[in-house]
Each structure stands twice: as structure tokens, then as C-alpha cells.
Amino acid sequence: MRRTSALILIGNEILSGRTRDENIQFLAKNLGELGIPLREVRVIPDVRETIIKTVTEIRAAYDEVFTTGGIGPTHDDITAPCVAEAFGVPWEIHPPTFALLEDYFRKTEFNAARQRMAKLPRGATPIRNPVSLAPGFTIGNVHVLAGVPRIMRAMFEELAPTLRPGEPVFSLTWHVTSLYEGALAEGLEAIQAQYPDLDIGSYPFHRGDGRYGVALVAKGQDRDAVTQAAAHIHDLIEKKGGTPQQGEPPP
Amino acid sequence: MRRTSALILIGNEILSGRTRDENIQFLAKNLGELGIPLREVRVIPDVRETIIKTVTEIRAAYDEVFTTGGIGPTHDDITAPCVAEAFGVPWEIHPPTFALLEDYFRKTEFNAARQRMAKLPRGATPIRNPVSLAPGFTIGNVHVLAGVPRIMRAMFEELAPTLRPGEPVFSLTWHVTSLYEGALAEGLEAIQAQYPDLDIGSYPFHRGDGRYGVALVAKGQDRDAVTQAAAHIHDLIEKKGGTPQQGEPPP
Lengths: 251, 251
Hints:
homodimer; alpha/beta; Alpha-Beta Plaits; 2 domains; six-stranded mixed β-sheet; four-stranded antiparallel β-sheet; 9 helices; 12 strands
């Protein structure tokens, strides 16, 4: 059975260009490997109505939904109360998390802002944060992760074993330098037509040093079909005068 | 007057994790500087119905809409016909672009796949591509750019002077090391309450080498208010025992 996922990045800092996203690719690769491929990503601002509306819409459309960002102690960290509202449940102190943070912040100050991080939507399961302690959480099919990449990745490692995997996706890539997509397009379309259940992708590259070429990818759940389509791609490149090279082009 | 923009990244390669996005941050920064801040980003697959639905929805919600990806010569490059369909116009040969490409590909082969790149939605204005010739285009408030970062940036430079700028946004940043957000949160909320028209943002960082801290950003269209709020941020950091440092933290 085909399982799908979507990702919501919550944060003005991505939309302003202040921060370059480092989370999409990590989650895309890992979810692909789990057989729960990412089908959509949205980047939205720290605006209450927008978060609630987006979570409500996206969680109805995909099997698993991940959010990153907006779960810290400051006034602009509003993801958790918004997710609670999207699920129609209260956002309240989660006693085991409160005890954990109270103990941790004993040395400094367990103030009101930090106590906020001990609040979860009612019914949510915390996701352990081995880096900075304040947890993410899962409620229904929505998994709420930190925005800081190191913390996000650590939370995802905690979460991954609890996710139900889907069927794995196989992929084979050939690339060729000094040949343009336009020379390969017709042959590639024929291969796509022969294997309608696969995704046959064509990705041109142009390097700063003048190198150019195309990477051609065959991808799908039928391993034999992927192998056969990749062999056709290899032959197509040779027929057009190129030298097929396995895998992705060097950076 | 406040102007807004949105970005649609069209491409399976971002959703599969094959390619790390390099376009969001460039467009976010440049659109911010033009006073047309990015309010939403969507990453969607090369699926006809999804592209048409997303373009239709997003172009009604924002002043300017940018798309990247899916305008090459191969079967998976379906952005242009989908945008034509979203606007209810035919996708047809654009004679000046056809002449340009015919001349250019005379040396190799101006085949059917390459002729596809000479087709635009009726009424669209081409956006010059100084890198690999095949143009992007503007139709209504939708600007269709290449996905390859070098080509996208070159097209954007061509396009930028034609965009109507909005009011500029000013921003000042202080950062502090060895202090957590939780210590600053309450004071920061008070500053946000004092300047409700500004965006006061708090962005923790955790480096691999153990350095940690917070960057605090004041942003808005009223330059005096931004300056005053930044001064309060400076004083708050000192009051909490930190040493305020101007600008973003080093990587």
C-alpha cells in the first residue's frame, strides 16, 4: 500500500531568507527510505490562523504530517497551541514533561516561559529531545518537531521506529556530461510510456566551471521494472553519443 | 502599501531529497529587499492537477507568484501547459521565441522536444534566459522561472526591474552566546507588546562544536520603531547577563 507524507515548515525566518532551510532534504530522504514519500511541503509564517488552517487541511490529505519550528519558549513559538486548536483539544501542562524540565532547569530558573514548553495538546505523546530536552510531540498523524536542524534530526531518530513503514521505493540513476536534455527528451518519453508506473526524471545540471549535462533517474516500487528502465536509459545515452556514468553527477 | 508574494517549487527532485533546494533563500532575500516579502512557499510534485490547482489558489491569494522548475524540454516538464490551463488560455508557439531557439539549435538539432520550449501560454511575456536561452515567462501575476539555480537567478535579475516594489522592510539583529531563549522570553514578549506592528523574532542556534545562543531580530516598515526596539533588545540581553553582539551569529 502506498503511504504518503507532507511537511509544514513553520517560521518567518525561512520566508525572510534569514535562514536557509536544512530540514526538507533530510526529511525527504529519510521518509523516502521508510516508504512514506514526501508529497508536499509548505513553508508558512508564525501566524495563528495560518498554522491552524494549514495543519487542518494537510492532516486530512496525507498519511503522516511533520511540522518543524515554533516549539520553543518565546512569544513567537505558537505551533503547539495551534496544533491543539486544530485537533480541538486543550493545550495543557503534561505532568511528566513538567517534572523533567523542572528538574533540568532547577540550576537556572524554571520561569513561566520555560514552563510553556511543558504544555502539550491533550492526548499527545512527547517525542524525546536528547539535545535540549524540551520535547516535540505526536498527536494523531501529526508529528511536531523542533526547527533547529540538530534537534529536529535527533527527534526524528527517536520518532522513526514508531512510524509504520510503506513499501520501499527503488531508484537508479545514470548521468551524462556534455549532452543536453533536448537530445534525450524524445527517447526518454518513450521509456516513460513503456513504464507508466515508474517516475522517469530528467535533471539538467550546469556547474559554475562550465560543465553541464543531465542526470536521468528511474524510480518506483517494482525493482525489476526500475532495473529494466535504467538499462534503456543507459542505451539511450550511448545512442545519442554520450558516455553513461552511474549515479549522480559530481558537485 | 503592503505587497506580498508566494513561491511554488515544482519538482519531484526536492520532494525525494535528490536535490537540496537552493532557490527559496535567494528569492526570499531578494523579494524582501524589493518590499514584496514572501508569505508562503509550496513544494509540489510534477503532477498536472496539483500544479493547476496550486497555481489557481495561490495566484488569487498573493500579489506576485513565482514558480521554479519544470520548464525544460522533457516529458516531466509540464509547468508551462499547466499554467496556461490555470489561466484558461492555449499553450502555443511564441514566434519570436521559436525564431530565437531555431537559430540557436541550428548547429545541433531543433527537434520536437526543443520546439516545446518555444511554446508559451497565449498572452505571456518571455523572461530572457542569458544562460541556456529557453525563456521563462510572466502571465498575469505569475512568473515562471527555471529550476536550475544559476538559470533561475539569471532570469530573476532580468525580471526584477519590471516588478513594482513595495515599502521596504528594515531589520536589526543582536545575538548573544551562552544564553538560552528561555531566559529572554519574558522580556522579549514585553518588547513585542510595546511594538505590535513589528515582528520580534527569536532564533536559537546550536552549533556542532557546542556553541549555543540566540539571535533576536526586530523587523518592520517603521525604521524608528525598529531602531528603538533593537535598543531594548540590546538592554534586555545585558540585563540577563549576556554580551549583546550586533548582527547574525557566525556559522
